[in-house]
Write a structure and sequence with these properties.
- The structure holds 3 protein chains of 3 kinds.
- Helix content of chain A is 72%, strand content 1%.
- In chain A, β1 and β2 form a beta hairpin.
- By secondary structure, chain B is of the alpha/beta class.
- Chain B has 2 domains: 183 residues, D-Maltodextrin-Binding Protein, domain 2; 193 residues, Periplasmic binding protein-like II (D-Maltodextrin-Binding Protein, domain 2, 3-Layer(aba) Sandwich).
- Chain B contains 18 helices and 16 strands.
- In chain B, α9 packs across α17.
- The radius of gyration of chain B is 24 Å and the shape is globular.
- Chain C is mainly alpha-helical.
- The chains are: A mainly alpha, B alpha/beta, C mainly alpha.
- Chains B and C meet through α1, α2, α3 and α11 of B and α2, α6 and α12 of C.
- Chain A: Belongs to the binding-protein-dependent transport system permease family.
- Chain A: It is found in: Cell membrane.
């Protein structure tokens, strides 16, 4: 009995200590900061719920408007990008499972490479592609639109670069998961005359349901933190319609003037709560449906 | 086989722990010098530091370029450790840092250097570091918003006369309406926020009144309307397109970017360009909104008096030997450098050719300038392109600045 | 039936071809941009291939060994990423085993609490994080890059999910035979989760390679920096990209090691697990 109670400490303990030091303490500090006035340099000064009151209830405040505009834009990004980041890599992974497909490694590499390129270089390449004078859209497709400055095009270029750079990770999770599905299952299904669509829904999807839940939850959480793509592609424009919450938060904390880090922390905590609720719901619904 | 691999990994691991533990002593005879000078600028500064160190000074300088220097400064000031001895900061940071008690007066460092004094520097670069009678910084340069012009295009449209009085007016630009080939434009929208802030000066206005921010003002409105006229006439590069690249492509007459981009423009073969002042609503006045790179000492109790004297010696060396910095395209602040005939080889010497030009380099010193600039940068493109209602947006901007000031001034200094 | 297979094969091929085509064009365009002079980059009109191929961008980038020693940075990054990844694999396999296969009180509550906490965006957290690193004396050392990332929950979550899909029978029968937790972990679970560990290794390696916000704060010495943070030093402070070809070229150079790792690793993570009955749905 004693021996068994020590084992979990051995397996889970080391990570728990790391988590405590490198995630819990900084996170708790960040939450504490959200109840303070702080410019990053001084000692935070406790002001209770004041930051939250301003953000959530003071309709005339700039911070109220920033928070809700940022949250709205972030939600737009999440709702559109997450399905794309799940479905496209899943389809690619399934297509790659086809026995007769050749060059699997090359195809996989082509789809994975964009995720390796740094966001600033990737944005530069895509901005050139969408440039009317120098790029593909203007010269090959004769598009007269300045993509970054007009909706819905501004959103489209953000989704394009996000999906282009983002599908590789989920693709290899699905590949690794599907590779683990027993071939016997497919063969017996084939014997029974099940078509590929049927096999996908009755064998593949149920077999990879746990990794699938993982990709849903983590892709959503990551999408809520979106920052680099809108910053580089549209800088939040036009009319701040692509200005996501993380951009406002970072500007408040690390902008040009004196830092307003307490307010930024409060917005970050609220964003964290939204992520928490959404991912808990996702996990709950998907786990229940898959059992 | 597999085990061996793991064992060897662990060995390297442990050895490297020991190595990293050994290499951790900062030399007390070294001046740690942080700058935000990324790109080629860092290399020019490296060269200055290197040649200074070759003179075998008592305190050698170690130059550290940092991509996100201001965040890093907040971090080390907050933790109280690893604070650099000397740093280069931008002009608009000075009032805030002084208020927050982050800067130490530079006076102790330069007290042994009689030549480091106001008369030997461009006046506005020097005075921007003077808060309440105390000198906190010594300037390296002024870097300004400037207007490059494409010589070939000016000739093509026979408008070289625009340059005669050194000021291109908005009316002159508007006179080209309907006369340009398709795909060519009079001016781009690079650094548009800086251009707007120059217009405010040209109209005799300011961004503050008795210390209160003044954004929603008739002058600001006029400034936006003037620039909007150019956009409305179809003379500005289209919204959302890269006007900077369009200038380099040779399709734009004027580009309103910075002194520092002359090196990049020069890398484009066949781009025949010159430099002049930012356009103005009136031929009587012109302003080039500027900033300055300033040497400053962040609060650090460990810095000895001897080291501060060493910093002074380095600053004196820079004052005498910063011609190298002109290569970065910047207007060197030391008069000894800009009065040297060699400085005439650099395009930016245009801005030190006479007193009127020097006076046109305008550095905002208002305490809350960064918030005003942020508001202008956030909203200017949509205003100029007519995407938003001007009056309403000016109100929003005013509120934006006031809300930020209210939040920041609640914080007390250490 | 064979006809059915061939139709689905063509559909699969068509889909993969379209996706690959869209995905590869920007990469090719990026590569070709890195072989163009600035003059050519800004000259109007679109060409996939450069008119005059020039190596100048790469020569400039590689030739700068004082302010931007890119090869040195890559060596630093490899060192950091290899050690980080190695430790990640040790930590996540053990912890993932603990949270999915061991029975202890409050196991799932603890796991979901930790996962939930890790979802809070860490914006101002760099200040306390820096202080912690400073406390350990890790400022300006690679430990600041190698160790804190081990605390992350993402990979552990993935391992846990993966293990949930593997039936308990194997380890339960081993347990009945008297095997201890370490035996079960080492000789049964580890081989089973090898594909997902390789995926996690790849993620950790790439994640550590591409991190740039944190290293900018913890490093001061140029020669100690990892490559992604170092590349930021090539850019202009006003965000004006002066030399497009150089910037894209240096970014492409920086992905070569991660790309090689991927090519090497992809053989392994798609290996099906044929241990007994493998994974049943």
């Amino acid at each position: 009995m004693k021996k068994r109670s020590f084992a979990p400490v051995f397996f889970v303990g080391p990570h728990l200590i790391l988590f405590l030091i490198f995630i819990l303490i900084p996170t708790v500090y960040g939450i504490y900061a959200s109840f303070t006035h702080w410019n990053l340099m001084n000692n935070p000064e406790w002001i209770g719920l004041s930051n939250y009151k301003t953000i959530l209830f003071d309709e005339t405040s700039t911070f109220y408007n920033q928070f809700f505009n940022g949250l709205k834009n972030t939600l737009i990004f999440v709702v559109i990008s997450v399905p794309l980041l799940i479905v496209i890599p899943l389809l690619v992974a399934v297509a790659l499972e086809h026995k007769q497909i050749k060059l699997k490694g090359t195809i996989q590499a082509i789809i994975y490479i964009p995720g390796l390129i740094s966001i600033s270089a990737a944005a530069l390449i895509w901005l050139l592609i969408f440039n009317k004078q120098l790029g593909i859209t203007g010269n090959v497709f004769h598009s007269q639109v300045a993509w970054a400055a007009n909706q819905p095009y501004a959103w489209i270029i953000i989704f394009v670069i996000s999906v282009w750079g983002g599908v590789g990770g989920n693709m290899i999770i699905y590949r690794a998961s599907i590779a683990g599905v027993s071939k016997d299952l497919y063969e017996s299904a084939e014997m029974d005359g099940a078509g590929s669509v049927k096999r996908f829904f009755s064998i593949t999807l149920p077999s990879i349901r746990f990794p699938l839940i993982y990709t849903f939850v983590m892709t959503t959480a990551a999408s809520f933190n979106v920052f680099g793509q809108p910053l580089m592609m549209t800088d939040g424009g036009p009319r701040q319609t692509t200005h996501v919450l993380m951009m406002y938060i970072r500007q408040l904390a690390f902008g040009h003037g004196e830092s307003i880090a307490g307010m930024a922390s409060a917005m970050a905590v609220l964003l964290g709560l939204v992520i928490l609720v959404v991912s808990a719901l996702q996990y709950y619904v998907m786990s229940r449906n898959s059992n | 086989m597999k085990k061996n691999w793991i064992v060897s990994l662990l060995t390297v691991f442990i050895v490297s722990i020991m190595l990293s533990a050994c290499s951790n002593g900062e030399d007390k005879n070294t001046i740690t010098f942080w700058t935000p000078l990324t790109g080629d600028d860092g290399a020019y500064m490296d060269q200055i530091v290197k040649s200074y160190n070759e003179t075998n000074p008592e305190f050698k300088v170690k130059h550290v370029v940092t991509a996100d220097m201001y965040t890093k400064i907040s971090t080390v000031l907050n933790s109280g450790k690893g604070i650099p001895d000397l740093a280069i900061i931008h002009a608009d940071r000075v009032p805030g840092y002084v208020k927050q008690g982050a800067l130490e007066p530079i006076e102790t460092a330069i007290s042994g250097q009689p030549e480091i004094k106001e008369e030997n520097y461009l006046p506005q670069a020097w005075s921007t570091g003077n808060i309440g009678g105390t000198q906190y910084t010594v300037p390296l340069d002024i870097h300004a918003n400037t207007m490059y012009y494409n010589k070939d295009l000016l000739k093509k449209y026979s408008v070289e006369s625009f340059l005669d009085d050194n000021v291109v007016t908005i009316d002159e630009m508007l006179s080209l309406q309907g006369k340009l080939d398709e795909g060519q434009y009079v001016v781009n929208d690079a650094l548009l926020g800086w251009v707007i802030l120059a217009q405010v000066q040209d109209l005799g206005g300011d961004i503050q009144e008795n210390g209160k921010p003044a954004v929603d003002t008739p002058v600001m409105k006029q400034a936006f309307e003037n620039v909007k006229k150019i956009a409305d006439a179809g003379l500005m590069t289209p919204f959302g397109e890269d006007g900077y690249l369009m200038f380099q492509s040779g399709n734009v007459l004027f580009s309103t970017d910075g002194t520092w981009t002359s090196t990049a423009h020069a890398a484009v073969e066949g781009l025949n360009f010159g430099v002049t002042n930012i356009y103005s609503p009136t031929p009587d006045k012109f302003t080039n909104r500027a900033s300055s790179h300033l040497f400053a000492m962040l609060g650090n109790e460990k810095r000895t008096n001897e080291k501060e004297a060493g910093i002074g010696a380095f600053l004196e060396y820079v004052r005498e030997n910063s011609m190298e910095w002109a290569k970065a395209g910047q207007i060197v602040a030391s008069k000894q450098v800009i009065e040297n005939p060699e400085f005439q080889n650099y395009m930016q010497s245009f801005f030190t050719a006479n007193q009127q030009e020097i006076d046109s380099l305008y550095i905002y010193t208002y305490e809350y300038y960064p918030y005003v600039a942020e508001a202008v940068d956030t909203y200017c493109a949509d205003i100029v392109r007519g995407n938003v209602d001007l009056d309403e947006t000016l109100k929003t901007m005013q509120k934006f600045v006031e809300d930020k000031i209210a939040e920041s001034s609640k914080t007390t200094t250490n | 039936m064979s006809k059915k297979i061939s139709i689905s094969k063509y559909i699969a091929y068509l889909f993969l071809f379209v996706v690959c085509f869209i995905w590869v064009i920007p990469v090719l365009f990026g590569i070709s941009t890195s072989f163009r002079s600035q003059t050519e980059v800004v000259s109007t009109g679109f060409r996939l291939l450069p008119v005059d191929w020039t190596l100048e961008n790469y020569l400039t980038v590689l030739g700068n060994t004082s302010t931007a020693p890119i090869l040195r940075w890559m060596v630093n990054s490899i060192y950091i990423a290899v050690f980080h990844t190695f430790l990640v694999i040790v930590v996540i396999s053990m912890t993932g085993y603990g949270y999915s296969r061991m029975k202890f009180k409050g196991r799932d509550t603890l796991f979901f609490t930790l996962l939930g906490i890790s979802f809070f965006p860490g914006v101002v957290n760099i200040i306390p994080s820096y202080k912690i690193i400073d406390l350990f004396g890790w400022v300006n050392t690679s430990w600041a890059m190698i160790i804190p990332g081990l605390a992350g929950m993402g990979n552990i979550f993935l391992v846990r999910q993966f293990l949930k899909g593997i039936p308990n029978e194997l380890d339960e029968s081993a347990r009945v035979d008297g095997a201890g937790d370490f035996r079960i972990y080492y000789s049964i679970i580890l081989p089973l989760i090898k594909p997902v560990l390789i995926v996690c290794a790849l993620f950790s390696f790439v994640g550590s390679w591409n991190d740039f916000l944190w290293p900018v704060i913890v490093y001061t010495d140029v020669e100690k920096m990892p490559v992604t943070a170092g590349l930021l030093l090539l850019q202009d402070i006003y965000g004006n990209y002066r030399m497009i070809g150089q910037l894209v070229g240096s970014a492409l150079l920086a992905i070569i090691p991660t790309l090689l790792l991927f090519v090497f690793a992809q053989k392994y993570f798609i290996q099906s697990i044929n241990l007994n009955s493998g994974i049943k749905g």
